[in-house]
Each structure stands twice: as C-alpha cells, then as structure tokens.
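Exercise 7 asks you to align residues with tokens for two separate proteins.
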Amino acid sequence: MKLDGQVAIVTGAGRNIGEEIARLFAAEGARVAILDQDKGRGERVARAITDKSGEAMALAADVSKGAAVEAAVAEVVRRWGRIDILVNNVAISDNKTILDLAEEEWDKLIAVTLKSQFLMAQHVARQMILQGPGGRIVNIGSTSGHRGRPRAIAYCAAKGGVANLTRAMAVQLAPHGIRVNGITPNKTGSPVGRDEFDPTRPITNLLKRPGQPGETARAVLFLVSEDSSFVIGAELFVDGGVMAMEIP
C-alpha cells in the first residue's frame, strides 16, 4: 500500500472529491482525519472507512478560522502523533457577478476557499517540520482560477490565488523537505457546495463527459506518494483537457 502507516488530513472531506480522497487514502493504508464543517457528513465518511477496517476520525471545524485550525491539527497529533499529508480541498462558490456580490459574501468565500489553505498549511507545516522528515501538501484549485467567467467572481479570484499560493508554498517549504503541489479539476462530480450531481450540466472538454471524483482522488494519491518524488511546485490539470482547448 502506498500510504501505509501515514497520517493524512483532508479538508472538505464530507462529500464529492474530498470524500473520495479520504476513502482512497484509507484504502492505501493511511489514517485519515476528515475535516468538514458539517459534522454529520464527516462522521458518515469516517464510518464508511472504519466499516472497511480502515482508520479514520471526523472533526467538525471551520477551517477559515485560525483557532479552529490550530485545535484540529493538535487533535490529530494528539491521537496519531504526527501528520504526513495535507490535502486542502474545501471550497465554496458564489455564482454571482461583480455587480451583485455583497462584501460579506466576498469575505466569506475568500476566507473559506483561499485563506483556509494558508491556515491549514501553516499549522500542518509547522508540525511536519517539528516531527521530521518532510511531508506532502496538495492544494485543490480549479480551472476557474485561470479564466474569467460570467459569474462566480469571488470563486475565480480565490482559485487564482490558490494557484500562486501553491507555488509560493512550494518554494518556502522545500528546504524543510515538504513537497507542495496543486490539482486543478473542472466540473467533477456535483457542483461546489451541492450534494446532487446534475446530469444536464453543460460539459465542454476533450473527453465530452464530466469528471468523476475518483479520477481526481487518484491524481492526488500520485502527488502524495513516492511515485511523484521529483514533482514539486507543479499544477496537475485533471480537467478532461478543457484548459488545452480554445473555447469558441
């Protein structure tokens, strides 16, 4: 197993991509901390893992708040003694234009989708440095961070920030043996913040189908395993080729 005996934290792991990452990590031998603000969702995923003889814990935390992040990281270390892997997956979307979005909505989205990645990485990286040797961090971005959209102004800004945050983190944490990389999906599973998959959702990519959460999870597994030992500061597009296309 590729992650045997390692400890991983996955944020927003109560559904969709985050859930599939948590399940796959557990199947590969990791002990997985599932961070989700919805306690019920996190506990459901943890039960699914333990029912298959995996090891998981669910923590309800608002990862846009520094105190909550610090407490969650401390609880994982208290229980399992270390942290080897962090996946920053949690995000929300606004689906509004610059003319319609209220200031408080902007602040909340930036805090949850971008600031949380900084806070989680800061506290986890400190623990990784303390315990040694090294670690792996993967930030989940979006193709919306590379293109303008007719809506979702704050989401586009936040995911654009995630792309360069990932590169800056890679540069600053490399001396400590921590590899930081990013994953950029597009229209995978259910829309951000929703439980239901919409089969009528328009899809424009080279494969002419929506992405499956498990496909993104397997790409994340590559980046946190030794299979990617020489990959650092990279952004892996798991988008069906949409960023390679010229959109008419």
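Second protein for Exercise 7:
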Amino acid sequence: MEARLDGNLPIREAAVPEDPTVENTSEDAQLIAAARDGDRSAFGKLYERHTRMVHGVLLAHVPFAEVDDLVHDVFLVALRKLGSLREPGAFAGWLITIARNRATDFHRKPRASEELPAEIGTTDPEEYEARAALEAIRSLPEAYRETLVLRLVEGMKGPEIAARTGLTPASVRVNLHRGMKQLREKLGRERP
C-alpha cells in the first residue's frame, strides 16, 4: 500500500519479514524432489544444509571420535530411505530421528576393545577444556544436551534450533537457560 505525504514523498508500509523456516522448508522440499529423481547434487545440498545439526545431535550422545562416521551413516540412511519420507517439510526432524537412532544403535553394539580416555592424547589445554565441557554437557539431562551442543558447539542460533528440531522458540530458550545454569554448576563456574 502506498500513500503520499505532501503530495511528494511516498510512504509505504514496512514489509512483514517472511518466516525463514518456511523458505528453508520449501527449498528442502525442492531439493528432496530432485534427489528422489536421482539428482545427487541436490542431496549434497541437503547434506550441506543439515550436517551441522546432525553433527550436534550426535555429539550430544556419542564419543567425539565416533561422530564424523555416524554423521555419514545418518546421511547414507537418509539417502536410502528418502522415498519413505512422507512430508518433505519434516526433513530436518526426520534426520534428527535417524541421528538419535544411530546414537542409540552405537551404544547397543558391544565394543571389541576399550578406548583410551580422550584427554591422554592431548596436550593442548584448550582442547582438554573443550572435551571436559562436552563431557559435562553429556552428563546433563537429555532435554538440555542437544540444545546446548547445537548452540555452543555448532553455533546455531535459538530460532534456527527451534526450526530444525521442531521445538518451540520458548522451549529452546528455556532449555538453553536451564542447561547453561546446570552446565556452569557442573563446571564449577559462576556466571561472569
């Protein structure tokens, strides 16, 4: 809508910004349709768009050394089962479910050998602290783990976490707030 002030200057109503999740969902749907038709580059784009999220979900549940292999496993499963996805708009949530299932499967498998603790191989104090923080996050209640890893490790913002995980923005804020409080307590640090 346009109006004129003093007959010279046009005044326009500010455009309402579009919901970025709607745009991402429709773009995902187009890529999914192309991937179903055999376009490998379309699936590659889906991988690029969602790999951080899958990485973060897995990092919240399995040892650091296993995450990269499991990320690839998740996308291989997704590629094989893409035809079974009923609602393309639910792709991100579907991937999260596959990632959680892969993490559960990982913990069910017997291990042939025991692993050395991760801190033995590192002399970098920052890496040691990062691994300690990650272990502290993993010890938190399930509700906070993924949200904290997606925010602190993968660098995703609250609205993006909400859009990708299916949580409401308010739930993400609450999970981040409560999770950070518990994490600070676990690490023995007071708020700066």
